[in-house]
Amino acid sequence: MSELFYDAAPNATRVAPERPGPRQYPAKPREVVLFGTCVVDLFFPEAGLDAIRLLEREGIRVHFPEGQSCCGQPAWTSGYATEARVVARAQLAILDAGMPVVVPSGSCAGMFRQHYRELFAEEPDTLERVASLAERTFELTEFLLNVCQVEWHDLGEPTRIALHTSCSARREMNTHLHARELLGKLAKVERVDHHHESECCGFGGTFSVRMPEVSGAMVKDKTESLVTSGADEMVTADGGCLMNINGSLDKQQQAFRGRHLASFLWERVSGEGKA
Amino acid sequence: MSERIPVTELTDGFRDRAEVALADGQLRTNFRTAMDSLMKKRADAFPDEEEREGLRELGNRIKARALSRLPDLLEQLEAKLTDNGVKVHWAETTEQANEIVHGIIQARQGSQVVKGKSMVSEEMEMNDYLAERGVECLESDMGEYIVQLDGEKPSHIIMPAIHKNRSQVSKLFHDKLGVEETDDVNELIQIGRRTLRRKFMEADVGVSGVNFAIAETGTLLLVENEGNGRMSTTAPPVHIAVTGIEKVVENLRDVVPLLSLLTRSALGQPITTYVNMISGPRKADELDGPEEVHLVLLDNGRSGAFADAQMRQTLNCIRCGACMNHCPVYTRVGGHTYGEVYPGPIGKIITPHMVGLHQVPDHPSASSLCGACGDVCPVKIPIPELLQRLRQENVKSPAEGAKVKDGGAKYSRKERLVWRFWRTLNSSPVLYRLFLWGATRFRKLTPKNVGPWTENHTAPVPAKRSLHDLAREHLARNGGQ
Predict the structure, then answer these.
(1) How many CB atoms lie within 10 A of CB B106?
(2) Which residues, 6+ apart, have CB-to-CB distance to B66 below 8 Å?
(3) Does residue A257 sit at the B interface (CB-CB below 8 Å)?
(4) Which residues of chain B have pLDDT under 70?
(5) pLDDT tens digit sequence for A152-164
(6) Do A42 and B453 touch (CB under 8 A)?
(7) What are B224-252's pLDDT values in tens digits?
(8) For residues B229 and B278, what is the distance between their CA atoms, to the nearest angstrom?
(9) What does the alpha-carbon distance between residue A164 and residue A181 come to, in Å, rounded to a whole number?
(10) Given an 8 Å threshold on Cβ–Cβ distance, is A208 in contact with B439?
(11) Among A residues 15-44, those touching chain B with beta carbons less than 8 Å apart
């Protein structure tokens, strides 16, 4: 391939940051910060708590700075960059301590790692702090797999699950394979494929309320493929997708449900069955 | 919390058309089937990820290099083509482009035109313009022919009639051409071809698009699968090519990787059936080919995109349609929902420069930003990032001065206030925790109906206790903080 790069000049006009390449992982730290995300905070707090438990199980001391709120993504993806920047700056101040930041959601982690650079592109001083945060940010499954290098004994009953990977995890963090690999470490968990697995569930933050017709068609297709996959339940590492998919299943009065991967993993490795 | 924010109820053409398209089961099946097949074909065409990524990077650099020298290359192209005997015309608007084309036809006293596939001619609405002036313009690409016969516009830039299945085409031919209905695709193609063959010989002028215009040699390169492009550009005595100014590349060598990217991304083909390279009219000692060749170079807002370093990346596009094929929104609603010449993700970022954001105010929002389009783009246009940028331009107040044509189309004081409130809430730890406290304590009061969200979901009910509460308690017990 290299000879094809004959005289193609370096790309002077490219503005967008490159997608992340393979990442070098540090040794397991003694302490981390958990950034809970606003959706988990309010709607799936147990998932956040289970993430803390999973980290503590690896001998890591977890900090949860009380000042944290939202990463800023809702405003950013809605076109309100100024508003997003104010909220992002508040999170930057809270997460400045130099500790690794673990996030139980691919899209919020992607916001820290990818979009803060765009958000603060015109503030060179802030960009240094942004780069530090990006370097220290890990999506939960990525952290458990590559930094903690967990080895688990599966204490749960045999089960079949469908894994839903968020678009942000897939495209901004490259972490969709991490969740898959983590599940592979559980002896009694069988992962089943579903149709159009890599396709968006239709959430997209405010997209789901700005374009309810199209978004609704997307989540309807997604839930149908999950329900017919033969899985007992769905797991995902993203709060937004979870709220979208479960909300739609509930509206359709389906019995099938999804839950956060952190809760599923904690149940399997702790043996604490939760009905 | 984004989903709890009331956004301004938006109604415009896109949403209304989307609703109609979503209710059309046949249309949805046609698109889903077609897009699934196209996605598979592209995947099969790039079995080696490393090769694919290397090629995409190369494609991006070639286009970026060409765009960085765009004015120079266009001048060089004009000089070379003129040397080769091609007449070059410049058009800033589609109206000017149409006048030029009509002028050339008039000079030959022409009344019949055959056209190979060209999205720029769609942009110009050339068929209607010429028809109003007594010139018949017949589409010779089979897909274009089908949509023209049905009085429609293309719903995809590569496969204009992809929204129809074979029985719909059969019925159309039966209704319009009076032929027997048939389910045999080959027979259907033959029916179309019989009509077109005669037209190629009778036409006064042939019109085509251009895939790549090569500055160094003054060559117009066209790819196609059916042979109609070759017929349109060689059989009639006059050939008029129309193209956007962004299609110019430096040299022939640049074309090799771009062609490979184009055909593999579009239809999963290693190469097309026909690659036409036109460098001038028929020479004195040649037996065939047109007596006159013209090139119309159209701007139509492209220089506006060019002037903005970030938006310039839009002009990398080589019109393969892969972004459409992989877009979950396009797959659901089809090309006509976009209401413009260029549908799908690329349409959403290029159309505002052509017609202004006020014409397509909902285009930037009609995406979940899933990123599939950016992932498959053969020339690495960061479509999701450009959509984000357009969203920002879209909500700018008149005082903020949007940088994209007719920006500020979606500015709403009410919506801005909602986001200001969100900002205050999320940047003040005290207020945020007060909000958590209230939302969890009064969770039973959550309304059952929360606007557009509850059209497709039940309302999300806050947990009994927030993660802030649970974590504080848990970590205090475990000696954390």
Answers:
(1) 12
(2) B73, B248, B249, B250, B254
(3) no
(4) 1-12, 479-481
(5) 999 999 999 999 9
(6) no
(7) 999 999 999 999 999 999 999 999 999 99
(8) 11
(9) 13
(10) no
(11) 15-16, 34, 36, 38-44
